Amino acid sequence: MPCAGAEAGWRADVGRGSMRGSGKRECFFGKEGGVTFSGGEPLLQPDFLKEALYLLKQKGYHTAVETSGAAPWDNFRKVTGFCGFVFI
């Protein structure tokens, strides 16, 4: 049975510097899964994205950012050190 979102107990509170789960990591992310930020151009919110990527990396999740590239170059520099992949 697939699990997602609230069913898996996933909660992110980036402003408070925390990400919590119910322990059902494999159910939500799979054994090799992770988190991809996309849509609505995530690089237009570089501070939020940087902190979220940092917290996910600390928890051991694979991370990726999917972008159209329509963001200031400085925004790329802020986040690229914290994500595993950038897809343009």
Commentary on this structure:
This protein is α/β, with parallel strands linked by helices and 88 residues long. It contains three helices and five strands. It has helices at 25-29, 46-58, 73-79, and strands at 11-13, 18-20, 34-37, 62-66, 85-87. Helix 2 packs parallel to helix 3 (73-79). The protein is globular, with a radius of gyration of 13 Å. Residues 1-8 have low confidence and may be disordered.
Summarize this structure as a short list of keywords or feature phrases.
alpha/beta, 5 strands, 3 helices, 3-stranded parallel sheet, 88 residues, globular, disordered N terminus
**What series of H and E elements makes up the topology?**
EEHEHEHE
Low-pLDDT regions:
1-8
Largest sheet, described in full? 3 strands, parallel
Strand content: 15-25%
Give the CA-based shape.
globular
Please provide the count of β strands: 5
End-to-end distance: 33 Å
Average pLDDT, to the nearest integer? 76
Residues in helix, %: 25-40%
Structural class: alpha/beta
Strand neighbour order, sheet with most strands = 3-4-5
Radius of gyration, taken over Cα atoms and rounded to an integer in Å:
13 Å
Count up the helices.
3
